[in-house]
Amino acid sequence: MAALGALGAAGCTRVATASTEDGGDLLDRLKAAGVVRLGIAGEIPFGYIDKNGDLTGEAPELARVIFKRLGVDRVQPVPTEFGSLIPGLKSQQFDVVAAGMYVNPERCEQVIFSDPDYQMLDSFIVRKGNPKGLHDYKDVVEKKARFATGTGYAEIQYAVEAGYEEGDILIVPDQVAGLNAVEAGRVDVFAGTALTTREVVKKSGKAEATKAFTPLVGGKPHVDGGAFAFRPTETKLRDAFNVELHKLKKSGELFRILKPFGFTEAEMTDLTAKELCGG
């Protein structure tokens, strides 16, 4: 992580400053600088540094395409922990959150989101054969399973809503740490997105991913959508980003960009940020 931090900080220029202009002038500043700083959380496949030290993931690759169309030629990673993404955005450590972040009402009070570029269900990492028969959050509660999920993950609230005590949840940095916890027997289950769980268990001989399922929010099935986050003052940048995003959706290019990272047609979406923010 220290190495990733050094990579993200190298050559970091503070392009953005508070703007008094209605809608913000960050896009103009980014065009002039020729680079946009992306906040990432080291989560495969959403946004991470690969084994060659290169920035990749569905969000950074999509950002490259959209910002190129907006006149910004380069993207620069600023790695941080997931729970630090919104504070880092607000304190101008980077310009945009490009980490596949779920849109929810609590986050919508702090940042503004583009429309989602994907939708996602949940899944569990469990021991091979799923010995405790854990298929949803209700099972976790009823069978008193030892439960883990990631820092700042929406799955924390889903488990609490099902009746799990928040203080009993083991919080780990990411899905790799979650896999390790399951394999070592420290927990019975790790909850994450269907995509991250199925990808991280591919090389595991001890763990597997459960079938994707829909969590309940307020007693109703809830489908999450992941998007890019912007500071609330930067509506011009967010709106310009959305215009290009919708062009990519309409042409089918969005799916072609996301497919190499394990996304399927089932994860393409017409959900809007407005819907997920609660209207």
TrEMBL record:
<dbReference type="InterPro" id="IPR014337">
    <property type="entry name" value="Ectoine_EhuB"/>
</dbReference>
<dbReference type="InterPro" id="IPR001638">
    <property type="entry name" value="Solute-binding_3/MltF_N"/>
</dbReference>
<feature type="domain" description="Solute-binding protein family 3/N-terminal">
    <location>
        <begin position="35"/>
        <end position="265"/>
    </location>
</feature>
<keyword id="KW-0732">Signal</keyword>
<dbReference type="GO" id="GO:0051470">
    <property type="term" value="P:ectoine transmembrane transport"/>
</dbReference>
<dbReference type="Pfam" id="PF00497">
    <property type="entry name" value="SBP_bac_3"/>
</dbReference>
<protein>
    <submittedName>
        <fullName>Ectoine/hydroxyectoine ABC transporter substrate-binding protein EhuB</fullName>
    </submittedName>
</protein>
<dbReference type="GO" id="GO:0033294">
    <property type="term" value="F:ectoine binding"/>
</dbReference>
